[in-house]
User: Fold this.
Amino acid sequence: MEPTQQNQSKGDSGTLGEELRPSLAVPYGVPLATQQTYHQEAAKKSLLKTNFDGAVFEDLGVAGISVMVQNSFGKVLAALSKIIPLPSSIVALETIAA
Assistant:
């Protein structure tokens, strides 16, 4: 008996490899996606966040730095932006900004 005839006698369509395909059916009662809830604790009033950055303006031969300080509620407490002479490297620029 040929393999195709054996598969057909078992009720299969006879397509090669069909019996190896995984089932895509989801069992009853299993959610398709799980929902996760994230809880964020209130920030402490005494924490401050400092952001700093630098930018290079090669065509002008200068760089710029900026610094911003925020409290734990996101309120800006202080900010600074300044144009400085072009430093020797990006690392130097970031260090100056910090």
